[in-house]
Amino acid sequence: MTIPQHLRKDLFALFPEKPLLLVLDFDGVLTDDRVYVSEDGSEMVACTRGDGMGTTLLRRADFPVVILSTEKNPVVAARARKLQVECRQGLDDKTLELERLLGERGVPAAQAIYVGNDVNDIGCLRRVGCGLAVADAHPMAKAVARAVLSHPGGRGAVREVAELILARLGREIFYNESDRPR
Questions:
Q1: For residue 65, what is the enclosing H or E element?
Q2: Are 128 and 20 spatial neighbours (Cβ–Cβ below 8 Å)?
Q3: Tens of pLDDT along 121-163?
Q4: Domains of the chain from N-terminus onward
Q5: Do 141 and 125 form a contact (C-beta atoms < 8 A)?
Q6: Residue 137's closest CA among 24, 18, 60, 29?
Q7: Which bin fits 125, alpha (ψ -120 to 50), beta or left (φ > 0)?
């Protein structure tokens, strides 16, 4: 199996041999962990389109992605809809919800990947086969993660993971079917 040159081989080696599920925190993973609040109290966040492309590539490869978030905010659901991924939000206990998700889908924890950035992700990072922290994660999250990604949250971390998953699955990275190498 050939690993594209731009991917870290040390991270690739930590991935389950047959990954079955990617679970993402929202704030600080799909966003840069900042929130913009308007005078009426509505919130906006910044996400990178590259991370969106990563989830699109996984979706096109029929690889499931789920967002778990403690936030109950319309922006989380809106981004999940745009990415066409499942979202479970307003969670009091993400680890409990992760357990529920794995059970519902029949996915062994060892074959799941979780990406987090803060202390409320620690249980999930410990529970899965491959718990990853974004580059700018809280030190406690980094300490329990199997590895720290090269990219910060909201700035390429999800794309990095998506491409590693595709490489692990032996899938070539292309967007248009007509771009497939022949």
A1: strand 65-69
A2: no
A3: 999 999 999 999 999 999 999 999 999 999 999 999 999 999 9
A4: 9-170 (3.40.50.1000)
A5: yes
A6: 29
A7: alpha
